[in-house]
Amino acid sequence: MANTKINIAGVEFKNPVVTASGTFGSGMEYSEFVDLNRLGGVVTKGVANIPWPGNPTPRVAEVYGGMLNAIGLQNPGIDVFIERDLEFLKRFDTNVIVNVCGKSVSDYLEVVERLNDTDIDMMEINISCPNVKEGAIAFGQKADSVFDITKQIRSIAKKPVIMKLSPNVTDITEMARAAEAAGADAISLINTITGMKIDINKRSFVLANKTGGMSGPAIKPIAVRMVYQCAQAVKIPIIGMGGIANGEDAIEFLMAGATAVAAGAMNFVNPYLTQELVDGIEAFLDKNKIEDIKDIIGCVK
Fold it and tell me: Which of 68, 80, 132, 289 has the fewest beta carbons closer than 10 A?
């Protein structure tokens, strides 16, 4: 049996498969389909310092090759999250990575401070949130903003910090380098790509928000390209995601330079997906007589 263990910032994962934030809740519903103990880690839905109601409905739409969502990071807030979600996740032998969102730097810092005293393994910082003080431009769309928020979070965080990068930028490597320079322990990418759908019969937008985040298999080639570019640009580990639907997709991201992979939108299509990815990666390694998963990570140059 091949060795599938990986290490990110001193945290050991039994395999490189984790969940993508916002597509798996905190694993409660999916635990009926998937043995969470088999996963490398569970990345929770985004949590803020106070409860967020999210955007008005309709806020999800099916499109060719994926979906659009404008959920707006609805969440119960850090208090309920710690009492309910973290208590649930403690039952499982898997790494717990908490996704953090906010509308100002102080919002993020407040959540990070609360998480410092919990038994989590890592934090993933969602910098695709609109920065209310910068005219709602996402924190992750300007390199200096990426550097600033990463540096401030890293200065107080007691757990390893993963910065989740937005693909809605001119040069993703610029953002990756800014995160690395500011002390990020790892980066994850890609977050959703901004999209739109129009109902031609109603002559109106399908989503109340007009635009939404595109995810699903249609974005995978873009995601693989961006992961590869970032792997050439930085030395910190990368968690790759974007349209992963099977084990072969996951292998592609690993070969492009990702140390771990996250399954997102396709969990909605196939709730067994994450466990199937673990099996698929193991089967690929065995079939090709590869003894250690590290032999394929970043093997494509």
Answer: 289
Rounded Cα distance between 259 and 264, Å, is 17
Query: Would the pTM count as exceeding 0.70?
Result: yes
Topology of domain 6-55+72-194+214-295 in CATH is TIM Barrel (3.20.20)
Residue at 108: amino acid letter: Y
**Neighbour count for residue 290 (Cβ, 10 Å):** 15
Measuring CA to CA, how many Å separate 103 from each of 47, 142, 185, 295? 12, 15, 22, 40
Given a contact cutoff of 8 angstroms between Cβ atoms, the answer to whether 98 and 44 are in contact is yes
Angle at which helix 172-181 crosses helix 220-233, to 10 degrees, equals: 40
Cα R_g (the chain), whole angstroms: 18
- pLDDT tens-place string over residues 63-115: 999 999 999 889 999 999 999 999 999 999 999 999 999 999 999 999 999 99
* Other CB atoms within 10 A of residue 214 CB: 25
Count of CA atoms in the C-beta half-sphere (13 A) of 80: 12
Residue 230 catalytic? no
Neighbouring residues of 161: CB distance < 8 A, sequence distance ≥ 6: 122, 123, 125, 150, 153, 154, 183, 184, 185, 186
Distance, C-alpha 297 to centroid of its chain: 19
**Measured between alpha carbons, how far is 60 from 45 in angstroms, rounded to an integer?**
16
First to last CA, the chain: 27
| H/E run at residue 81 | none
Q: How would you class 291 by CB atoms within 10 Å of its CB: exposed for 0-12, middle for 13-18, buried for 19 or more?
A: exposed
Query: Would you tell me how many other CB atoms lie within 10 Å of the CB of residue 165?
Result: 28
